[in-house]
Design goal:
By secondary structure, the protein is an alpha/beta fold. It is 44% helix and 22% strand. The protein is built from ten helices and ten strands. Strands 3-2-1-4-5-10-9-6-7-8 form a ten-stranded mixed β-sheet, with helices on both faces. The radius of gyration is 21 Å and the shape is elongated. The chain starts with a strand and ends with a strand.
């Protein structure tokens, strides 16, 4: 059974992403592991010898009580959506969010991460932080990031951006397997710029390799890569966009520059990243 890690701060953004996580878990026949983390302040106890433990115990209790109150609400949401059969477990962990995501991935043998982005309680700064980018760049499993206003709808069309590299083909095979679970088609996009060097024969080889699958290839001549991707999402009615992260720099590119700003503002679709060396 696939295992999906869902970090949550119980914000509206996270609760919206929870619906996507449930549907994703149902599609891949996986188990959802909810992760909530909190950080206790670092205090020099030589100045607070009497109140030190009392304060820490109070903070830990408050986090536990919130966790205890919020989990039933998420389970109620699952039942309301007829997704109560999706297996769920929970983890409440002390420490930084980044550290605990990485720890949970290793300890729970996680296959996917699903998380909301641009929440009111700090998700945007979380994703934009340099330390975060460094850690997430090391994660070698797919990550589905869900914009705060992305309303879930049935996945019928999955977009896949490619440059026809060998590693792209390996990732595409994974996307095709995922698409079959959704009974969806895959729409591939290659933006051919003036600097592109992909031979026509390579493209034809790819078409032959995937001729038995619900995969179509779109080659567009344009130097405006970002604009072409946005048009592709709009005119092909893409429900989820899959992209290769190529390790360093992916999440800065997903959250900060113009492409993702346009994506989240105009389209609000989830983005599934596949880490590639």
């Amino acid at each position: 059974m696939k295992r999906i890690l869902f970090p949550t701060d119980f914000s509206d953004t996270a609760n919206n992403a929870f619906i996507h996580a449930l549907e994703f878990a149902k599609a891949v026949q996986g188990e959802l592991i909810l992760l909530h983390t909190f950080e206790l302040p670092v205090i020099d106890n030589q100045f607070f010898p009497q109140n030190y433990m009392v304060m820490y115990e109070s903070l830990e209790l408050a986090q536990f009580e919130m966790f205890k109150d919020e989990i039933p609400k998420l389970r109620a949401t699952a039942e309301k959506l007829n997704l109560g059969s999706v297996p769920m477990s929970h983890r409440l962990m002390d420490g930084s969010l980044l550290y605990n995501i990485e720890k949970a991935i290793k300890e729970d043998k996680i296959n996917y991460v699903v998380m909301g982005t641009e929440g009111a309680t700090g998700w945007a700064s979380f994703l934009l932080g340099s330390n975060t980018a460094n850690v997430l760049d090391e994660i070698d499993i797919p990550i589905l990031s869900v914009p705060s206003k992305a309303v879930y709808k049935k996945v019928n069309k999955i977009g896949f951006t490619t440059r026809f590299r060998p590693k792209d083909k390996k990732a595409l095979k994974k996307v095709v397997k995922l698409a079959k679970l959704y009974d969806a088609s895959v729409k591939c996009l290659y933006v051919k710029t003036a600097q592109s060097d992909v031979a026509t024969t390579v493209i034809e080889e790819w078409k032959a390799d995937f001729k038995e699958d619900a995969v179509t290839f779109n080659v567009v001549l344009n130097d405006d890569v970002e604009g072409t991707i946005l048009d592709f999402i709009l005119y092909k009615d893409i429900d989820v966009l899959t992209m290769l992260s190529y390790k360093r720099g992916f999440f800065e590119g997903i959250v900060n520059p113009s492409l993702t700003k346009k994506l989240t503002k105009n389209f609000e679709i989830p983005i599934l990243s596949f880490p590639i060396d």
